[in-house]
Amino acid sequence: MATAALTPAPQIVARRVEPEQHGLMSWITTTDHKRIGILYLVTSFAFFILGGTEALMIRLQLGEANNSLVSPEVYNQLFTMHGTTMIFLFVVPMLAGFGNYFLPLMIGARDMAYPRLNALSYWLFLFGGIVLYASIFWSPPEAGWISTVPLADSTYLPSGGIDAWIFMVHLTGLASLLGAINFYVTIANMRAPGMSWSRLPLFIWSILAYSLLLIIAIPVIAGAVTMLLLDRHFGTHFFDTAEGGSALLWQNLFWFFGHPEVYILILPAFGIISEVLPVFARKPIFGYKAIAASTMMISFLGLLVWVHHMFTTPTPLVVLIFAMVSSFLIAVPTGIKIFNWIGTLWHGSIEFTTPMMYAVGMVALFTIGGLSGIFLAMIPVDWQLSDTYFVVAHIHFVFVGGSTMGIFAGIYYWFPKMTGRMLNETLGKWSFWLMFVGVLATFMIQHSLGLDGMPRRVYEYPNVGHLQLYNQISTVGSWILATGVLMTIINVWRSVKHGTIAGPDPWKANTLEWYTTSPPPVNNFDEIPRVRSLEPMKDIRREIERQANEGAGARKRRSDGVKVTA
Amino acid sequence: MTALPLALAPSAFASAFAPETGGSPAANHISTLYNITLIIAIIVFLGVEGAIIYCLVRFRARKGHEARQIHGNTKLEIGWTAGAAIVMVAIAIATFVDLSSVRDPVNSGPDGLNLSNGSQYVATGALKPPNGRALTIQVNGIQYIWRYTYLGFSSNPDGLGDPYAYYQMVVPTNTTVILHVVSQDVIHEWWIPQLGPKVQAVPGYTNYTWFKISKPGNYKGQCSFLCGRGHARMIAEVTAVSPQKFTQWITQQKAYLKAADIQAEACRKELAKGQGAASVEFTKNC
Predict the structure, then answer these.
(1) Is B186 within 8 Å of A151 when comparing Cβ atoms?
(2) Cα dist. A232→A156, A160, A236, A237, A241 in Å?
(3) A396-421: pLDDT as tens digits
(4) What is the extent of the structural domain holding B206?
(5) Is A283 near chain B, with CB under 8 Å?
(6) Residue B89: inside a domain, yes or no?
(7) What domains are defined for chain A?
(8) Would you call A466 an interface residue with chain B, using a CB distance cutoff of 8 Å?
């Protein structure tokens, strides 16, 4: 009895220290990482809907051979806005949103290291998006999301669209850079007592890799777009070969940023599913250290391989071979991750909740994107397939099958924590199956389009061979995919007000964000527990159970004793 | 080494599973390498997806079934890391074997264009067949058309006046053709799927590729790097004809170009003479 009183059972005690602010002004002036996280998530999801609408228009135009639904000019603007939106305004800030909301909670911190810098990051990102989308009222950019020079130079595209694109890259880039520094400092300094590097949740490892890559890559793209701006308006010739510059310089600088960007987009999604899989398989993550190490390995190798986007350029063969071999090396840590995820499912007790279905679906679909990547990493095969629909299929299996499915796993997994209410499981499962089938239908056939000789970024194609049939399959698939996304939007809309009350830990999860109320109070935790393993919530539940049993046992023994004496 | 799906699929769908072939040896080599990799990829794919499906069926939550609390297995993890590394080494070896046969041009066949006499067929630039003799064509990307200059066919010492053509490139069969790919405005990309590697045309740089066509026919392709609003319409066609017909064609092409030059010269003189109303007359005639 006396010992039980000395070590009370750990329990969720989070009292609101001050009344929470409401109203528009409280959102505009907030420095609370959770509110900033929600702002990030909602804003980038809005951009996801815009980018998705552009994708549907692209697929409609390509639904028929020699179609003239949109003009070549509008078509170029559509795919430029689609690619730019999805990469700069959806996936990166969406992952930043999850990072903002859950990083402090998962490491047991009360906020980010620099709360006001955090707010600045969000507003820079929002204005970057507004600058880009303001251009649709004048002339949107039309040189692709990679804005290759000389096409993006003022000689060929004098209109302001490219300038809006440059401004957007600067604003969102600065947002990402400041956010990355904030994440890094928070992870390095504000972990709960006992949370050593080997007890850091895998999502946090992935945010660490994401931050390091952003800190290295963003200054390079910022420099490159500044040079482009100077070339366009101030008479410099950085990218003009005829005047002593180099048209290849842009591709080198852009892809030095662009390839790490691919890992910036995918690693946190890997992190999300590394959290979700063990929770619903009811067993620890398989090979924690290998997954954490492979994340860092991929980040490092990802910095060496940018030239594999340039296999068809006039670059010396030895440089191409270096990029090819480094790309092959990346397949090894990526394989390790996939094997470890399967190892996590092995001998588990798998519960088919919606977040789990998205997580497993992500592994299944990303595998296809990973394998098609091997083909493109081989110099001779890339000489045939580069800049075709095979590449389009590959990137979409990575970004839709991989990043987006991972993001949806995160939405379904963490929605209860953010709102205090569960999402509807039936709608969620419909959404998952439609998206899963939609991804396969839309993008699988695009491999064949590329093999049949269809280049990317063409607004029309002739009605020869099976081109029209394949394109129609892809267009139908894109609408299935869109319907799946719509289901989730409806689900979120309904559940925010009418979902089942979640409680602090509806999934019986492993990490510290579940050791507080849903949604958490402003200060996150009244008491930060000491972390003794990778799965602190398991320890806490076990401790509660043990003490409850002990209490019950003591009562039982006493009653037994009573019986004996009687 | 043809891939399994190729054997199973009806021939009409063959191109759905592998890159195009049948034009030049380089394209065939690429396709072989692709098919070897495809077999490996399908095995890995079936293994991974099969393991996922097995786990989902076998280890789904049931009453009386407890998850086994395993944290890892060092031997197994080292094993599959080594396994993945071995597969990648195998793919790397296959790639290196294939790379030189795709990149390096072969000699022309005995029944190709006679390249042994006349210095005009000595290949210049970075890419050459072993005997150093090939038909060299400069491919120039222009928004939105391809221009082909047949190098070394002019009698002018300055090399100007070489015969040229647009859109359709006529080449002799069984002859090694080296392309010097350049651009005069934005970046374009030369790609004829059946003839093998695509190469970017970057302003200020010369990029190289080659092909050798064994049977007469038309081989179509198009620019594959975004070059502006007309990108989708920047198409190209390579027409392979017998060496005799090629010689006839190039002779005639030279004659046409000479006639056009003479006419242009006359027009320039007219223009130089003409003042005011005369120049209006000039625009009508020329």
Answers:
(1) yes
(2) 10, 10, 8, 9, 15
(3) 999 999 999 999 999 999 999 999 99
(4) 119-268
(5) yes
(6) yes
(7) 2-8+31-555 (1.20.210.10)
(8) yes
